[in-house]
Design brief:
The chain is mostly helical. The protein contains 9 helices and no strands. Helix 8 packs across helix 9.
């Protein structure tokens, strides 16, 4: 998060594309090797605290894929290719993922297997990359229009806050709520509190910061123009 802005500032478009693509391609190999090492010294981890699942070095391909997409969208020829191929590849990647999950018991995140940790996450990245590409380059599509509806836009706006707050909220709820509470009710209360906190965070902190940055950027452009 801290290093990438400096990389963007120093490198040319073509080099940035190669770096982003390189990270995407090397990540499954890194995860596969790391899984073998973790299995050797700490055994198989079936829980949600798997280092492959949680630690940034093993999930950099998702971030790099987002950076790669932003770069490709600056290039007309690449944008045309995304418009043509993003839909079919997205459907294929998701199809392969779910087919493998149904066919291979070890192809699950909680299996902590080499095959899932290397290929599984990469298929999710590829499918997500193509889905986002499709929505951007085909804004008139039915799916893009559906996801442009106000409720989906709102959830998207607070999604990062939900991601940040969901874990501490869940821990707090375990302390505050009685252990006899039905799991469905627990999940509903947990979701309501998480969304509420994420909404407050968005309107009180994130939105003012975004607006401030936009004003600063406008002022810079105005000064440069003058």
């Amino acid at each position: 998060y801290f290093a990438w802005p400096f990389v963007v500032k120093k490198l040319q478009w073509g080099t940035l594309v190669k770096v982003s693509l390189g990270v995407v391609l090397i990540s499954p190999l890194l995860r596969g090797i790391a899984t073998l090492v973790f299995h050797r010294y700490w055994g198989v981890n079936h829980d949600w605290n798997s280092p492959i699942f949680l630690l940034t070095p093993f999930r950099l391909d998702g971030l790099a894929a987002g950076a790669l997409l932003s770069l490709l969208l600056e290039h007309h020829r690449m944008t045309s290719a995304l418009k043509h191929w993003s839909g079919p590849i997205c459907v294929s990647a998701f199809g392969i993922f779910f087919a493998l999950e149904l066919w291979m018991p070890e192809f699950r995140r909680t299996a902590d297997s080499v095959v899932f940790n290397s290929i599984g996450y990469s298929l999710v990245v590829l499918a997500s990359f193509c889905l986002l590409s499709f929505l951007i380059v085909k804004p008139a599509s039915g799916l893009a229009k559906l996801l442009s509806l106000a409720p989906f836009v709102f959830i998207g706006a607070i999604s990062y806050g939900c991601y940040l707050y969901q874990a501490p909220v869940k821990i707090l709820m375990h302390y505050l709520l009685p252990s006899s509470i039905p799991s469905a009710l627990f999940l509903m209360i947990d979701a309501i509190v998480t969304v509420a906190l994420a909404s407050i965070s968005f309107y009180v902190m994130e939105k003012p910061i975004i607006a401030w940055r936009s004003e600063e950027h406008t002022s810079e452009l105005q000064s440069h123009h003058d």
